[in-house]
Write a structure and sequence with these properties.
The chain is an all-alpha fold. It has one domain. Helix content is about 80%, strand content about 0%. This is DUF2269 domain-containing protein.
């Protein structure tokens, strides 16, 4: 692929940052909603939080992940950075896999499971242990998602470890 012009690179980088910001903002929203779920006994509020997270998982999380991946790959291919030339880019690619598993897949499944547990048996979960376990997995997933996103931001700024040695 031919390298981007400076203007093309700036536009692509702007899109990449925009999608990454949406992903980070949505993850922070998930954190706030999950803290609300853990700190209230209001079943209507809990169900509303799960439904909001589920909608976000099916919309902005998916779009931001896809947009970030596409623009990131295009930036790598359209600039001198490449896909595997630098260690920091390889680490970002691994963290992206984590973000994809946790974001559009994990958050979607855990929120759907939470909704179905809350709406079964007249709003009361048939198995309180399974409900708490699901809520814990969701909370852990959100924490790991935030950690991976913040790590990717830091890697993009500091670009540690340098270039890989080619054989």
């Amino acid at each position: 692929m031919k390298n981007f012009t400076m203007t093309q690179k700036k536009w692509m980088l702007s899109l990449h940052i925009l999608f990454a910001a949406i992903m980070l903002g949505t993850s922070v929203t998930f954190l706030i909603l999950s803290i609300t779920v853990a700190s209230t006994s209001d079943s209507v509020l809990i169900l509303s939080c799960y439904k909001a997270m589920h909608v976000l998982a099916g919309t902005s999380v998916r779009v931001s992940v896809i947009g970030t991946i596409v623009t990131g790959v295009l930036l790598s291919l359209g600039t001198h950075w490449g896909l595997v030339k630098y260690y920091w880019i390889i680490v970002k690619e691994v963290l992206t896999v984590v973000a994809v598993i946790l974001g559009p897949i994990g958050m979607y499944i855990w929120t759907l499971k939470g909704i179905s547990m809350l709406t079964e048996v007249g709003g009361e979960s048939a198995n309180q242990g399974a409900y708490v376990s699901n809520m814990l997995w969701l909370f852990i997933g959100i924490g790991l998602q935030l950690f991976s996103l913040l790590a990717m931001y830091l890697l993009s700024v500091f670009k540690p470890w340098g270039k890989r040695r080619t054989s």
